[in-house]
Design goal:
The chain has helices at 13-16, 18-27, 60-65, 93-107, 127-140, 160-165, 173-189, 217-224, 230-233; strands at residues 3-7, 29-34, 37-42, 48-55, 73-78, 112-119, 147-152, 193-196, 210-211, 247-248. It contains nine helices and ten strands. Strand 5, helix 4 and strand 6 (112-119) form a beta-alpha-beta unit.
């Protein structure tokens, strides 16, 4: 049975570990670290249904080597409106937006998904700020993506010091609905649909926003004209996640972006 490879929301493989990934890819195998030791994961095309890459800014090495991938793949690419106070090691957003457009022109707009997440609130990054920056970015990415994924900050243990200091908080229900209405309309005007990620507690369907998987079996089958095994299509159990079953190759605590909201650091 072929599997879906995720690579990786834990450590931003395309940004920081592209050389390591492609070395493993060309030898046809990666070694996955688990709580119970290690196990090999085949990366041979006959064993891989699709690859999903997660990044904030892929390296030149990754972009230059994409053409060598012999398995179907698409990219989940996070571009938010935050500055260095929240995302200290992410390059300037105009440069990241330029690279997004470059990659889109290479592999097609359907295969590069824009993520504006997570949405957090503080005295500077308020609702008006997010709706304005989202509109600017949507305009910049018009014609270069068809998918936009949003999510809202979860106040989990690793960021509670930031919450207590007032550096960030989760949006209120009222703020969420106000942003959702604006973002959905702006995205539609720029040729995109908006979906939420693991946000089952909010019903945003009134704005045309559905809760949907990021690793999307239906999209993969349609886009790449393949049929996935039924056992892959069942969603994982993590929170409200609806993603297809996948194997993630990344490791926690390796990402170098240093984002203040990150759960994986």
């Amino acid at each position: 049975m072929k599997q879906i490879i995720s690579c990786s929301y834990r450590d931003d493989t395309p940004a920081f570990f592209s050389e390591e990934f492609f070395q493993n890819y060309h030898r046809g195998m990666a070694v996955l670290q688990t709580n119970h030791g290690t196990r090999p994961v085949s990366l041979r095309p006959e064993h891989v249904a699709c690859m999903v890459f997660w990044t904030k800014n892929p390296s030149d090495h990754f972009i230059e080597n994409m053409a060598s991938l012999r398995s179907p793949f698409y990219i989940q690419w996070t571009i938010t409106g935050y500055n260095e106070d929240i995302e200290p090691n992410v390059p300037p957003k105009q440069e990241v937006l330029r690279r997004f457009r470059q990659v889109s022109q290479t592999i097609g707009k359907e295969r590069v998904w824009w993520r504006y997440d997570p949405i957090l609130i503080n005295d500077f990054y308020d609702v008006d700020y997010h709706t304005s920056r989202f509109a600017d970015m949507a305009s910049s990415l018009k014609g270069h993506t068809t998918h936009c994924v949003i999510s809202f900050l979860d106040e989990y243990g690793k960021i509670m010091d930031q919450v207590r200091k007032g550096s960030m908080r989760a949006p209120t229900d009222e703020e969420i609905h106000k942003m959702a209405a604006s973002m959905s309309a702006v995205a539609a005007a720029n040729g995109m649909t908006v979906q939420t990620c693991s946000e089952g507690r909010y019903d945003l369907t009134a704005y045309g926003i559905e809760e949907a998987p990021c690793i999307d079996a239906a999209f993969i089958e349609k886009e790449f004209r393949i049929t996935l095994d039924d056992s892959i299509k069942h969603p994982n159990s993590f929170r409200q996640c609806k993603c297809a079953v996948n194997t993630d190759l990344g490791s926690y605590h390796r990402c170098k972006h240093g984002c203040k909201y990150c759960y994986a650091k």
